[in-house]
Amino acid sequence: MKTIKEQYWRYSLFVLIIGLGVTIFVELIPFIGGLLGAATIYVLLRRQMHYLTQCRKWRRSLAATVLLVEAILCFLVPISLIVWMFVAKIQHIALEPQSIIDPFRHVAELIRDRTGYDILQPSNINYLISLIPKVGQWVLRSIFSFGINIIVLMFVLYFMLIGGYRMEDYFRDLLPFNHSTSRSVMREVHMIVRSNAIGIPLLAIIQGIVAYISYVIFGVPSALFWGVLTCFATIIPIVGTALIWVPLSVYLALSGGWGNAIGLTLYGTIVITHVDNVVRFMMQKKMADTHPLVTIFGVIIGLALFGFMGVIFGPLMLAIFIFCVDIFKRKYLDGTSDKLLFVPDPKKEEPAS
Question: Both ends of the chain: CA-CA distance in Å?
Answer without folding.
Answer: 43
